[in-house]
């Protein structure tokens, strides 16, 4: 009795353990007072080996400061770091989606020519692999098989590409100094074509500058993009997911003249990473038996990850902060900076997706009595919800969020009111469990039938396969010898079987 392999692959996503690490950033700059700090962590490269995932990243740090002479300046620095994930479940050939974010940062030292910033970085991610599922097939004439088509999902491949997004802000007043630009990439849609993936979205840029009249101005620029990334093996039916981040340290900013006045022109490099998955039909044996032997059948269950279409969630966040009594009162808000958002938790509940996090910004304000610039950080916890078409709470959610249109006003000189918008891209997958026959082994041979006819009792609801399996005959023989019977049976029935006796 011969059985052959009929193996196939399915994709499986596994969460990487969440952990934290400390990264020290040393930034060369002469400053007397730090006003705002913004930090963005990104993964630059990664390598999956047997037992570990090693990766390199950058923390982009942007600081607005005041000098001893009272001048406002800014400095940007890319702080490199490395880290890893370790585990026996990690093997070479797998792919990884690694997420890093700065949870908080502390200024530990401000020297005469440098500043030391310690960032608490959270690392997490997802491991992607095609798992081989063992299955069998048989062409043995003595083995009867019942097959079915099952739908499986496989990982096709990934691709990474960097593209430049051009953006500009028109200004009416002469610019004395460009202080700060903060850009974030948001994916709004992703589609698959033949050997490519199309990604659409926008780059949100906040620009802070000082006019010739010593007035701080802030502007938001929303620049849409549509990029096609080559990905061999992708089809129009592929399910795809995409991730994007801005290479902040490579952003180029210029002040140019235009027909309408001055403009701040930006060239923003955006890194796109796309992954594609495909659905396929596989024919497997659902049930089997032998007309000559007892068979020991082994089955195993397996799970695969079902990748769902990307979704976009938007919401408003607001909050207040009251100054301590020992802090100078607010006479005028000069500007805000260091706008950050950290998603701390996301889950599915009652048909909705819930995204929890903290938005933060630093407010720089003037106190007339002391004649000083002062800075205070506002941290606003938020919860946004939206309808979600998936009920499987055991799925894996990957949420990337940006905050924009930040506005802060002061009330009664001591209370700040914070208002902003948050937009989040949600990539989601959930497990689906199925099972297949993985092995069959011939056991004892059935005794030879020494009679020419047999009457068998069949029960209500049984179909021809079940009856033939119990009788150890081929299904075609049962149907041919009982042509007047309809299956499945509508009532208990006695069926007649005829056998051809072998001559001695």
- Give a quick account of the main beta sheet: strands, pairing sense, barrel closure: 4 strands, antiparallel
Can you tell me the number of structural domains? 4
Helix content: under 10%
Helix-strand string: EEEEEEEEEEEEEEEEEEEEEEEHHE
The radius of gyration computed from the alpha-carbon positions, rounded to a whole number of angstroms, is 33 Å
Taken from the alpha-carbon principal axes, the silhouette is elongated
The number of helical elements comes to 2
Average pLDDT confidence is 92
Distance from first to last alpha carbon: 26 Å
- Regions with little confidence, pLDDT below 50 for 5+ residues: none
Quick rundown:
This protein has about 500 residues and is mostly beta strands. The chain contains 2 helices and 24 strands.
Topology:
Layout: E1 4-5, E2 8-28, E3 33-49, E4 52-66, E5 72-86, E6 95-110, E7 114-133, E8 136-137, E9 143-171, E10 175-193, E11 196-211, E12 216-230, E13 239-246, E14 252-258, E15 261-290, E16 293-307, E17 311-322, E18 332-349, E19 352-367, E20 372-387, E21 396-411, E22 415-445, E23 453-458, H1 464-471, H2 475-481, E24 493-498
Antiparallel strand pairs: 1-8, 2-7, 3-4, 4-5, 6-7, 9-15, 10-11, 11-12, 13-15, 14-15, 16-22, 17-22, 18-19, 19-20, 21-22, 23-24
Helix pairs in contact: 1-2
Which short descriptors sum up this protein?
single chain, 504 residues, mainly beta, 4 domains, four-stranded antiparallel beta sheet, 2 helices, 24 strands, 73% strand
């Amino acid at each position: 009795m011969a059985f052959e392999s009929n193996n196939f692959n399915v994709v499986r996503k596994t969460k990487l353990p969440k952990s934290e690490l400390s990264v020290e950033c040393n930034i060369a700059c002469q400053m007397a007072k730090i006003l705002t700090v913004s930090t963005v962590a990104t993964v630059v490269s990664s390598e999956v080996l047997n037992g570990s995932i090693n990766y390199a990243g950058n923390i982009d740090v942007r600081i607005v400061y005041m000098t001893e002479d009272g001048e406002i300046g800014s400095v940007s620095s890319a702080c490199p770091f490395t880290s890893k994930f370790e585990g026996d479940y990690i093997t070479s050939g797998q792919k990884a989606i690694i997420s890093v974010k700065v949870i908080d940062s502390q200024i530990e030292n401000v020297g005469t020519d440098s500043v030391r910033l310690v960032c608490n970085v959270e690392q997490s991610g997802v491991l992607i692999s095609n798992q081989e599922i063992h299955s069998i097939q048989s062409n043995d004439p003595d083995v009867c098989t019942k097959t079915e088509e099952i739908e499986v999902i496989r990982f096709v491949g990934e691709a990474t590409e960097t593209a430049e997004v051009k953006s500009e802000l028109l200004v009416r007043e002469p610019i004395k100094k460009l202080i700060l630009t903060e850009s974030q990439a948001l994916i709004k849609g992703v589609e698959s074509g033949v050997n490519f993936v199309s990604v659409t979205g926008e780059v949100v840029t906040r620009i802070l500058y000082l006019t010739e009249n010593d007035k701080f101005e802030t502007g938001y620029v929303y620049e849409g993009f549509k990029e096609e990334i080559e990905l061999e093996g992708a089809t129009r039916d592929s399910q795809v997911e995409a991730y994007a981040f801005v290479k902040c340290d490579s952003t180029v900013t210029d002040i140019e003249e235009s027909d309408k006045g001055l403009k701040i022109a930006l060239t923003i490099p955006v890194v796109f990473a796309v992954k594609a998955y495909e659905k396929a039909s596989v024919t497997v044996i659902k049930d089997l038996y032998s007309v000559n032997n007892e068979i020991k059948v082994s089955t195993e269950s397996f799970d695969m990850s079902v990748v769902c279409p990307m979704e976009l969630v938007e919401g408003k966040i607001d909050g207040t902060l009251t100054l301590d009594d020992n802090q100078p009162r607010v006479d005028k808000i000069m500007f805000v900076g260091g706008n950050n958002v950290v998603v701390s938790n996301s889950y599915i509940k009652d048909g909705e997706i819930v995204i929890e996090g903290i938005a933060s910004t630093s407010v720089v304000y003037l106190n007339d009595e002391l004649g000083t610039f002062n800075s205070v950080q506002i941290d606003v916890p938020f919860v946004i919800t939206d309808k979600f078409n998936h009920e499987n709470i055991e799925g894996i959610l990957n949420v990337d969020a940006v905050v924009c249109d930040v506005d802060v006003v002061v009330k009664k000189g001591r209370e700040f009111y914070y208002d902003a918008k948050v937009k989040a891209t949600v990539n989601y997958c959930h497990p689906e469990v199925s099972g297949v026959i993985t092995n069959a082994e011939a056991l004892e041979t059935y005794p030879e039938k020494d009679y020419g006819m047999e009457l068998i009792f069949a029960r209500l609801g049984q179909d021809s396969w079940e009856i033939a399996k119990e009788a150890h005959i081929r299904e075609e023989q049962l149907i041919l010898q009982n042509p007047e019977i309809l299956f499945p049976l509508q009532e208990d029935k006695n069926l007649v079987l005829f056998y051809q006796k072998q001559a001695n």
